[in-house]
Design brief:
This protein has two domains: 122 residues, OB fold (Dihydrolipoamide Acetyltransferase, E2P); 91 residues. The strands form three sheets. The chain has a five-stranded mixed barrel with strand order 4-5-6-8-7. It has a three-stranded antiparallel β-sheet with strand order 9-11-10. The mean pLDDT is 82. Strand 5 and strand 6 form a beta hairpin. The protein has six helices and eleven strands. Helix 3 runs parallel beside helix 4. The chain is α+β, with helices and mostly antiparallel strands. Helix content is 28%, strand content 28%.
């Protein structure tokens, strides 16, 4: 992910005013092709207009004027003529012009704050923002094939079945696959016949045998080793 995407990007008003509005196919602004969603500006409050649910300000930093909106209605964060440092989210106005929805407004005490912001914003604009995004490709995790998945793959491809001992939870599905993959085994088997014929070690009681077989058949169908044939009472090994 581009680090600019969710950062408060230091810019000047002229930088924001030259950014085209997002198209109908895209929700975000792009600065030199890089997506930005937040920005910070330093300038003088040139005008303010109180609304029912918000206050709209016009910030002038000497390079242009950008509107920023404060949604706090209890106490205004700044007054007309204040030098302010504004952090906000980039949104299109009803006129399709860029504006900031303020998340933080700080009245600057140091009169040099504006010049410092100018210098930093220009430096970043020339040497960082116009560079390709430094994407970092994370290595893809290597999937680990379970004993049951390996057994189903070998059965499907007609390969010799692996002799690796299965996990305890996979003992029943493994026994079903091995039973169906025998040379003299029929290509299909009824569920009730499997419950009666498949030998499972260790053996299980009759009360739990049916439920365990249902779960095993469902698991094998999800893995693609079995599929229903004609009705819900018969399943077939795909190998």
């Amino acid at each position: 992910m581009d680090p600019l995407n969710w950062s408060y990007v230091k810019v000047l008003a002229c930088h924001l005013l030259q950014i085209p509005a997002p198209t109908s196919d895209e929700m975000f602004y792009r600065l030199h092709g890089r997506i930005i969603t937040r920005a910070q500006l330093v300038g003088v409050v040139a005008s303010m207009q109180h609304k029912t649910d918000r206050t709209e300000y016009l910030l002038d930093d000497g390079t242009g004027e950008v509107c920023f909106v404060d949604w706090q209605t209890d106490a205004p964060p700044c007054q007309l003529g204040d030098l302010v440092h504004v952090f906000g989210r980039l949104k299109p106005s009803w006129e399709r012009r860029v504006e900031l929805h303020a998340t933080k407004v700080v009245v600057a005490v140091d009169p040099n704050a504006e010049m410092l912001h100018w210098a930093q914003a220009q430096l970043l604009y020339q040497h960082v923002y116009n560079q390709p995004a430094p994407y970092v490709e994370a290595p893809l995790p290597t999937p680990r094939e379970t004993t049951l998945e390996a057994l189903c793959r070998h059965a499907f491809l007609g390969l010799p079945l692996p002799v690796e001992a299965p996990d305890v939870d996979d003992a029943l599905p493994v026994a079903i696959v091995k039973h169906l993959a025998q040379d003299n085994a029929p290509s299909s088997i009824r569920f009730r016949d499997a419950v009666a014929d498949v030998v499972v070690v260790p053996d299980m009681g009759a009360s739990t045998r049916l439920g365990r077989f249902r779960k095993a058949f469902a698991l094998l169908r999800r893995l693609g080793a079995l599929y229903l044939q004609g009705s819900s009472t018969s399943s077939t090994l795909l190998a």
